[in-house]
Amino acid sequence: PPRSTLFPYTTLFRSTLKIDRSFILDVASSARSRSVVQAITGMAHGLSMDVVAEGVETRDQLDVLTNLNCDLLQGYLFSRPLPACDLNLQVLSQRYAEVLDPMLVAS
Length: 107
Fold this sequence. Notes:
Blueprint: H1 7-11, E1 16-19, H2 21-24, H3 31-46, E2 50-54, H4 59-67, E3 72-74, H5 84-95, H6 97-106
């Protein structure tokens, strides 16, 4: 029997849907782009999936994507691509900055 092209996506056991950078580029300036991203996030959340937006480069994109309920964001706004060992150090330093800063000031 004929099936919709979306049929395979409703039967996969995936927990995350990644929105390509090409959809994110104009999201802060284009109502049409915002509508597309909103539709994608709505469909993904309806399927109990988390949504990752890739290619976030500006604060305006960040604000729009946050308002559109994207669960995770990645892109140059946060960091350039890094080797895994450098990423671990960066994440740890950001995570513990509030704890470490007072100690550094006191020393």
